[in-house]
């Protein structure tokens, strides 16, 4: 039994690392491509671009369904509606938060998604965190804050936008994990349900939202061959980004996804250093990067230990319990009834 158990554990570890590297590579790649598209070619219509991303993802799911990789599955419309609402509010909220707030406050808002995700897991899934797991999360937050937070200024409407963005993003990521477990959906299955709804809603509302944010009309944009190339490249990479997010949250949890997700922030800073020079790279940034990486390694080790991150267990004790007797409910039994 030991070799079989070890083999399964090794296989899971390899798949976990592969899923995470898939997410990191596509996420960092799309950031670099979008930066080129928006900063160099002036395509500032972020919400419409996200709608195009989900449009391409929808085409991918249709092709996979035709090939038989996505099976027929059921997701109740109320659940689908709640997910799409949270996901779309997340996209628009993040764009508005970035526009109305300083970069420093925007980064603080993104960091606050970890404690919000922890709160959702504690409230809905009865998750309990060990002291080491909590401390490792704190170290990650401190490290990324040192790296990215500079000036911090906020106004009333910017604060409201940040709150909406943080809570909707945390809820969307929580739903990804919860819906996959609740309805026994694979990442492909869930994406097959959600991508068409998000594509349709964002392509309809995106031009209006972008006009509100930028005072520019997307249909008046002067398209060129280079801008179309980067747009198609962005949509192609987004297919992998969307799929890898569902895979990672399905395999891990929303909190783990957020904690390890800050590795992407560190990688973007490192890539920016090599691609765009030493501007912005100083001792403070390096110290923050090292601290964040230490915290991520610590979190991975602490959360994987027994008691590091688990559902709360309960025991039933009666006054008539005699020596050697009692009723204990194991975690697995509790989970099946919750």
Automatic annotation (TrEMBL):
Keywords: Membrane, Transmembrane, Transmembrane helix. Pfam families: TPT. InterPro entries: Sugar_P_trans_dom, TPT_transporter. GO terms for cellular component: membrane. It is a multi-pass membrane protein. The chain crosses the membrane at residues 12-33, 45-68, 80-98, 135-152, 158-176, 188-208, 228-247, 259-277, 283-302. Residues 26-299 form the Sugar phosphate transporter domain. It is found in: Membrane. The keyword Membrane applies. This is Sugar phosphate transporter domain-containing protein. It comes from Ceratopteris richardii (Triangle waterfern).
């Amino acid at each position: 039994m030991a070799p079989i158990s070890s083999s399964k554990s090794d296989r899971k570890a390899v798949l976990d690392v592969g899923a995470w590297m898939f997410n990191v590579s596509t996420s960092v790649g799309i950031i670099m491509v979008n930066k080129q598209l928006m900063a160099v070619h002036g395509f500032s219509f972020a919400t419409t671009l996200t709608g195009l991303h989900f449009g391409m993802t929808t085409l991918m799911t249709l092709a996979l369904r035709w090939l038989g990789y996505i099976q027929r599955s059921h997701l109740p419309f109320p659940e689908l509606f709640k997910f799409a609402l949270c996901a779309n509010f997340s996209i628009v909220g993040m764009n508005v938060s970035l526009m109305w707030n300083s970069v420093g406050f925007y980064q603080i808002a993104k960091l606050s998604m970890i404690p919000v995700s922890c709160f959702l897991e504690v409230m809905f899934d009865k998750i309990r965190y060990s002291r080491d797991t909590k401390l490792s999360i704190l170290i990650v937050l401190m490290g990324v804050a040192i790296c990215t937070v500079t000036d911090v200024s906020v106004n009333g409407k910017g604060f409201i936008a940040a709150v909406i963005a943080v809570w909707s993003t945390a809820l969307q990521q929580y739903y990804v994990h919860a819906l996959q477990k609740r309805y026994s959906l694979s990442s492909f299955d869930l994406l097959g349900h959600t991508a068409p709804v998000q594509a349709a809603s964002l392509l309809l509302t995106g031009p209006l939202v972008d006009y509100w944010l930028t005072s520019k009309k997307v249909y008046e944009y002067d398209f060129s061959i280079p801008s179309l190339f980067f747009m198609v490249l962005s949509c192609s990479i987004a297919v992998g980004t969307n799929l890898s997010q569902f895979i990672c949250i399905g395999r891990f949890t929303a909190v783990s996804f957020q904690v390890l997700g800050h590795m992407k922030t560190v990688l973007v800073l490192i890539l920016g250093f090599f691609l765009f020079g030493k501007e912005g790279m100083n001792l403070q940034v390096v110290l923050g990067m090292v601290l964040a990486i230490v915290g991520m390694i610590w979190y991975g080790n602490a959360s994987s230990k027994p008691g590091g991150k688990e559902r709360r267990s309960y025991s039933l004790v009666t006054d008539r319990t005699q020596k050697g007797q009692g009723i204990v409910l194991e975690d697995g039994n509790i989970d099946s009834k919750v």
